[in-house]
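Colleagues,

For the teaching module next term, I've prepared a clean inverse folding example: a structure given as C-alpha cells, and then the sequence designed for it. I'd like students to try predicting residues themselves before seeing the answer, so please don't circulate the second half yet.
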C-alpha cells in the first residue's frame, strides 16, 4: 500500500481548495474513450478545466471495473486538457490507476494514494507534474512495498518525500528545489532504512543546483546508472548496486554520517566501472562514515558472479578530495563480498570473495584477494536395490567438499539414467530426479546409473556418475540352492534405552519421525539411514522427509526449546546464535528449467526443458517459533502455523495454509506478509 498525503493535510480544505471545484472520476464513458475532457467519465457529468480543487480517483465498484480481471479499463485515463492546474490529487490504489497525457501544475495539496492494508498497491502517474507550491508528501507502503510510479517532477519549489512502511517511489527525473527524502521511523537507519522506504530514480536534481538530502531512507538508481545533485545522508542507505552494473554520478559533494550505509555491487571479473562493477563518482568533496557493504550481484539471482583474484576496482572516486573512512574498515582491511541478502529472522550473507579496501586522496578501491570455489567431489554416488521390474532403487549421494559459508544458495541434484549393459551410452530417464527410482519394463536389458551434481553460491561442480547397476531383468532371478543353516545365536539381553541429549544452540537439534519413512545423512557421510526414534542430530544434516513427516526440536538462546514439523521434501537445518532456524530446501534438478533466453521460446513444443512451473522441490512446514524456510529465490519466516515452500522453474512459491508468513524475495529484496489462503511467487530472474 502506498498512501501519500500532505503532512499538513488541512491544506486540502484550505481557502484556495474550497473555492475551487472538486471532481471525482467514474470511468463511465464507453470503452475506448478514457479522456478527461469526456464529461461521462466524471461524477455529475462535468469535466475539470482551468484551475480546480481536488481530483479524486476512487475505488470503482461498477461490474465492468471491479471484475477479476476488469472487462473495461476504467482505471486507465488520459489527460487531454491543456493548462490544467490542480490543488490536490487523491487515488485509491485498489483500482491500479494509471494516469497519462498532458502535464499538470500541482498545488500545495499534493498527492494522496491509498490501498487496502497489506496490499502491494500500485499507482502510475505517467504525466509531467510541475510544482506550483512547496510540497510535503507522506508515502505509506503498508508494509507490502506499495509503489508510486511517476514520470517527471519539476519546478523551483522544495519537495519533501516522507516514506513509511516500505514505500517505494520510482521516477525517471525530479528537478526541483531542495529535495528531502525522509523515513518516518527514527529507529530504522542504515541497513534498515529501506524498511521506511526507497526512491529509485535516474535523475534527482541532476543539474546540481539544489541538494538531495536523505534521512533514514534508501535511495538507488533506476536501472544501471543515475545522476544526483549534492548528496548528504543522515542514517540513509545509498544503493550503488543492481543486477546490472552502473555508475551513480553526484554533481557536487557527498557527505555520509556514522549511521549511513553505502552498498556497491560487484557483478563480474574485470576492472571497468559501469561494466564489471558499480561505482559512486562525485565532482565535489567526499566525506566518508558509516557502513560499506559489497554485494556480489549476479543477474540470475542468489549466486556469485565470477571474480578474478588481483582485480582492482575503484568503488568511490572524486575529482575533489576524499576524507574519512568507513566504520571498522581501516586502510588495507579485508572485507567480504557477499551474495544477495538472505533474510528470514536472521541475516545470512554467504561470502563470494574477499576484498582489500584501500583509501587514497581521491578514491576508495577494492582488490579481490580470494574467491569462494564451487563444491568438489570426493566420492561418487551409489545405488542400492534389486534390479528387476517393479523394484525400487535408492540413490545414496556422493561426498562433496563445500567451502562456501552456510546459509547460501546450495544443494545437490540427481538424475537417473538408462545405460547399455556395460554402463555406456547413458540417456536421462524423464522426470526421474528423486532419491528413489522404480524400475519400469522399458529398463529391461539396460543398466542404470545415477548422475549427481552439487552447487553453491560460487557455482556448480562437474557432474559425477555412480557405478552402473546389474542388467535389469523382467522378473526376479531364480534363486540358487539355499546355503546350509548355521546355528542360531543366543539372544543378547537388550540394553537399557538411552535418554536423548537435549538440543544445543547452533550445534545440535533433536528429530523424531511423525509419520512415513524419514532418512537422514549426517555431515561427512555418504549414506542415508532411517530415523526411527527421537535422536540428537548435528546441524548441517540432510533430512529426507519426502515420504513422511518429521518433528524437529531446537534450542532457544534462553534455555527453552521450539518445535517445527516438516514434510514433503528434503532439507538441511542451520541455526544462528540468536536462535533463528532456517530449513533450506535441497534436492531436485534445476537443470531441466529453461534459461533466461529459452524462456522466450518455452512455448515451442520441441523444447527439451521442463515448463517454468515444473516443481523442482518443495517442503511443508508447521509450527511456531523462530523458524523460516528457504527456497532458491525466497525465504518464508513463520508468523503463524502452516505453510508450503515450493521451488519451481518459474521461481519460489510460498503458500500459506493458516495464519501468516513473512516472505523475503531474494532476487529483488522485497518483503511481504502473506496471509492464510494466499501465495507469493518470487520469480526466477
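(Answer key — instructors only)
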Amino acid at each position: 500500500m502506498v498512501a501519500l498525503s500532505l503532512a499538513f493535510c488541512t491544506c486540502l480544505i484550505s481557502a484556495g481548495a474550497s473555492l475551487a471545484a472538486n471532481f471525482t472520476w467514474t470511468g463511465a464513458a464507453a470503452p475506448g474513450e478514457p479522456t478527461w475532457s469526456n464529461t461521462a467519465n466524471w461524477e455529475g457529468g462535468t469535466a475539470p478545466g482551468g484551475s480546480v480543487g481536488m481530483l479524486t480517483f476512487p475505488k470503482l465498484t461498477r461490474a465492468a471495473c471491479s471484475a477479476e480481471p476488469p472487462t473495461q479499463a476504467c482505471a486507465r485515463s488520459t489527460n487531454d486538457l491543456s493548462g490544467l492546474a490542480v490543488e490536490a490529487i487523491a487515488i485509491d490504489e485498489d483500482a491500479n490507476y494509471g494516469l497519462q497525457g498532458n502535464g499538470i501544475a500541482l498545488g500545495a495539496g499534493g498527492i494522496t494514494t491509498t490501498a487496502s492494508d497489506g496490499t502491494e498497491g500500485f499507482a502510475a502517474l505517467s504525466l509531467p507534474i510541475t510544482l506550483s507550491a512547496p510540497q510535503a508528501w507522506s508515502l505509506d507502503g503498508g508494509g507490502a512495498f506499495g509503489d508510486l510510479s511517476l514520470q517527471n517532477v519539476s519546478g523551483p519549489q522544495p519537495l519533501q518525500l516522507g516514506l513509511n512502511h516500505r514505500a517505494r517511489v520510482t521516477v525517471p527525473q525530479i528537478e526541483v528545489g531542495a529535495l528531502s527524502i525522509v523515513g518516518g521511523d527514527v529507529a530504522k537507519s542504515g541497513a534498515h532504512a529501506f524498511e521506511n522506504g526507497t526512491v529509485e530514480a535516474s535523475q534527482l536534481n541532476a543539474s546540481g543546483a539544489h541538494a538531495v538530502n536523505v534521512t533514514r531512507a534508501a535511495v538507488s538508481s533506476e536501472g544501471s546508472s543515475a545522476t544526483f545533485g549534492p548528496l548528504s545522508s543522515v542514517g540513509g542507505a545509498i544503493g550503488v548496486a543492481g543486477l546490472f552494473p552502473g555508475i551513480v554520478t553526484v554533481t557536487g559533494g557527498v557527505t555520509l554520517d556514522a549511521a549511513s550505509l553505502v552498498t556497491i555491487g560487484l557483478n563480474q571479473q574485470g576492472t571497468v566501472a559501469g561494466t564489471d562493477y558499480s561505482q559512486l563518482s562525485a565532482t565535489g568533496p567526499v566525506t566518508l562514515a558509516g557502513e560499506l557493504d559489497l554485494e556480489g550481484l549476479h543477474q540470475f539471482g542468489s549466486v556469485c558472479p565470477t571474480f578474478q583474484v588481483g582485480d582492482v576496482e575503484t568503488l568511490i572516486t572524486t575529482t575533489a578530495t576524499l576524507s574519512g573512512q568507513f566504520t571498522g574498515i581501516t586502510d588495507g582491511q579485508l572485507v567480504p563480498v557477499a551474495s544477495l541478502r538472505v533474510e528470514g529472522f536472521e541475516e545470512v550473507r554467504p561470502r563470494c570473495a574477499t576484498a582489500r579496501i584501500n583509501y587514497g586522496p581521491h578514491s576508495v578501491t577494492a582488490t579481490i584477494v580470494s574467491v569462494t570455489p564451487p563444491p568438489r567431489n570426493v566420492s561418487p554416488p551409489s545405488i542400492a536395490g534389486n534390479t528387476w521390474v517393479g523394484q525400487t532403487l535408492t540413490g545414496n549421494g556422493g561426498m562433496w567438499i563445500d567451502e562456501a559459508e552456510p546459509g547460501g544458495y546450495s544443494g545437490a541434484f540427481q538424475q537417473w539414467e538408462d545405460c547399455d549393459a556395460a554402463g555406456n551410452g547413458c540417456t536421462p530417464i524423464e522426470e526421474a530426479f528423486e532419491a528413489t527410482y522404480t524400475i519400469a519394463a522399458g529398463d529391461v536389458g539396460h543398466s542404470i546409473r545415477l548422475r549427481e551434481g552439487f552447487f553453491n553460491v560460487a557455482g556448480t561442480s562437474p557432474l559425477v556418475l555412480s557405478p552402473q547397476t546389474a542388467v535389469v531383468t523382467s522378473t526376479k532371478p531364480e534363486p540358487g540352492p539355499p546355503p546350509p543353516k548355521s546355528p542360531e545365536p543366543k539372544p543378547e539381553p537388550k540394553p537399557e534405552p538411552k535418554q536423548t541429549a537435549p538440543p544445543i544452540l547452533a550445534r545440535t537439534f533433536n528429530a523424531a519421525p511423525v509419520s512415513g519413512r524419514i532418512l537422514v545423512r549426517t555431515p561427512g557421510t555418504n549414506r542415508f539411514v532411517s530415523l526411527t526414534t527421537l535422536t540428537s542430530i548435528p546441524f548441517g544434516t540432510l533430512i529426507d522427509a519426502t515420504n513422511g513427516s518429521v518433528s524437529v526440536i531446537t534450542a532457544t538462546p534462553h534455555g527453552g526449546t521450539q518445535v517445527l514439523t516438516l514434510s514433503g521434501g528434503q532439507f538441511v537445518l542451520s541455526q544462528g546464535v540468536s536462535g533463528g532456524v532456517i530449513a533450506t530446501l535441497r534436492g531436485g534438478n534445476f537443470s531441466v528449467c529453461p534459461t533466461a533466453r529459452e524462456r522466450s521460446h518455452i512455448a515451442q513444443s520441441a523444447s527439451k526443458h521442463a515448463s517454468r512451473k515444473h516443481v523442482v522441490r518443495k517442503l511443508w512446514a508447521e509450527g511456531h517459533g523462530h523458524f523460516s524456510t528457504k527456497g532458491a529465490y525466497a525465504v518464508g519466516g513463520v508468523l503463524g502455523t502452516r505453510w508450503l515452500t515450493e521451488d519451481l522453474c518459474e521461481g519460489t512459491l510460498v503458500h500459506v495454509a493458516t495464519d501468516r508468513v513473512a516472505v523475503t524475495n531474494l532476487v529483488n529484496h522485497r518483503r511481504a506478509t502473506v496471509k492464510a489462503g494466499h501465495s507469493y511467487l518470487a520469480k526466477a530472474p
